């Protein structure tokens, strides 16, 4: 819209223009805010409200909350927010109590890095960003309950993040009860002797340090020295997901080393089965469920002990999913970190056994040297790199032999990095004939192969003639008879069962389940995160801080950056930013444990980014509760389980598919712990999950491949030019770096927020990615202009609707639209809802006068999608209530029937009239209509009727006497 009014605007001073839209939108946003229009009442507590609303069916809708980045929003960001808002509005208008709010996920790396560069405290920049984003979002007219907003960096919020950490720290998983229980119950069991201590000594004889060690083996949050990804160049440890396939840091591309560092972990593995099983009852996209299942990676198999020849006390214990192939094991492999070949006493002999194949030694004089060199080489690689399918298999012989328990054969034990220490037992039996990795290794090292599963593809049973392993599950077992057990002739599944039984009877193995899921590394060497509510005493024992000392607020530090080191120096250890504040670190505290004030050292790591988003759904419910995490009645009201939602949870959670695993898995885990400990009735956070698509945008690049500002590109005859030079065009992401970002502010200024909302919803199905096209936005603006004109006289500003009943055709158009739009809104098909509203509006535009009932229905129909203009028109139509809580229009079924059928009316077999009737018309009604036709009356000429034959809906035959 240009600043100077056009001729059309002068003639029509009350036209729906960008300026008018802006005025309307600002007015209603203020109104909603002043009247708390979107406040959802709780059943009790400080947010309790109108009992009539509380008694309605309730819905809790959520978006994945934003990180308040300094770059602000582009039009891609609010796609999901607009959709959930439209959905929430639709539910308010269909009689629900709807909770919809939005907070901010505000701890994180960008603010910290900005702080390092500029010296601005991360809180300052983050809060500025939050304010900017709130302003951008407010302009979109999102109907959030503002009382329920928060940021994860608010001490009032992270107090509870810390409190939950302590709940997890203070509990253990009781396998028998299959749930978490307070650690005090476990202490009780040890103290009473009901449960034996690891070394059998009475609990009372254990020192405090020993007790703490025992309990750490059970706690759901525990510190351990497990190997982690240490990146000296960045000065921090990294999660596996932050390490590239080349074993370098995703950020900065620095080397990453496996180092043993004391770190906090969460025992999420205790919940592996429940996290897996409970997926079934969730209403989530199948693709996401599958990713979670794969991440958890449950494998059923067996553990088998292979004694080591010449070492009566040593055994190589393997995990296998193919115990049916035991007779085909021709060598063994240990992971490089395996304890049997670690420094110190090991099974590696002093010299190469006689007849050792030259290729097995790696050119080393002794097995000891070969193994040590190989271990060093492997330490420099990442797990991903080690497992890469295509790569050549490397390894060396350890000089040791193991004994295959099924046939007594001695098989050589190798060390090779394709076996990982972190999975199963860190050792495998290799069955080269039937496992592709073993096949490749055996070929490279000239190791024997034995076929024990008969190939069904005609390749024969001699593996030396094969090109690859035969890995089928559905085939008979061969070559598998030993002194104790024989499997020949059995199919794979039967053979597995038979061997497993035999192994347990012999005491050399058992059936086991193994998971790919690992415990969750929970510490980071960062500043901008939640401090741990943990202190260490002089013996190094970790203590939980009492409730009264929460929150542990982030202290001021001189330098926000983690200390970095020579990127290649693996022997360095991290120095956390919090550790630099000596006064904060060393404290004298009375923990209330009866031991009086003592000296403690604070934990100086911080929690990972994921922590704050692990429980935020609960905070929306009861945002100001300072006494408890959430009031149980309030939690049950919004999230409690019921028939359609067996584990409870949020009714709808909308966000990007990139959060398929980590965030959703972590949040599910916390939810289960809190449920087990009795704090919440739901055991799943999100009952229904919906992934919205992405808004994509064209990226224009010049001849050098550099992105040019998309807004300044011109199109000529299908080609694109920037400053006269031709540029290429490709669909890509939207963003500042690609110079194609369009902000909601620009679109709001040009057309208004209602147009932007409609356009985003009309672009296509919500779950599909779609290209942004600024030139197409005007289409939705025109829809609103026509709607406006249907209600308001543009010259006078007066309402122009007439007090009249709509004609038949209009009623049909109206109720057809109402019926369709209702279904589309309920099914989140906003694009087709917009199409149906447009169709109805176009019909109304053609009427000479617009009857009030149609105008009002149109306004109500569009209200969830374009709430400001709907409020304005509703008010102008003479209502003093907000449209937000008006009932959504309901269709009259009589007018909804879509097609009509032509009914032929005959008199004495001759066609006299044709009727357009509904396909489901009743016979009596059809007969009545037929007899009322003037042509029929004329043909009868007053004669008596002998018979009327009705074949609804197509034929009526009248037979006169
Ligand atoms: C013998 C065998 C024969 C195997 C055969 C497979 C096929 P999933 O299904 O992913 O759980 N394995 C076990 N631990 C390993 C480790 N730490 N590093 C690398 N590989 C390991 O895989 C289980 C199978 O992967 C196990 O079954 C083992 O090889 C291997 F025809 O044992 B199998």
Quick structural overview:
The protein is α+β, with helices and mostly antiparallel strands. It is 31% helix and 17% strand. It folds into five domains: 1-35 and 751-897, Isoleucyl-tRNA Synthetase, Domain 1; 37-162 and 612-691, HUPs (Rossmann fold, 3-Layer(aba) Sandwich), CATH 3.40.50; 175-269 and 521-602, no CATH class; 299-514, Valyl/Leucyl/Isoleucyl-tRNA synthetase, editing domain (Isoleucyl-tRNA Synthetase, domain 2, Alpha-Beta Complex), CATH 3.90.740.10; 899-960, Roll (Ubiquitin-like (UB roll)), CATH 3.10.20.590.
Question: Can you give keywords for this protein?
Answer:
961 residues, alpha+beta, Isoleucyl-tRNA Synthetase, Domain 1, Rossmann fold, 5 domains, six-stranded mixed beta sheet, four-stranded parallel beta sheet, binds ligand ANZ
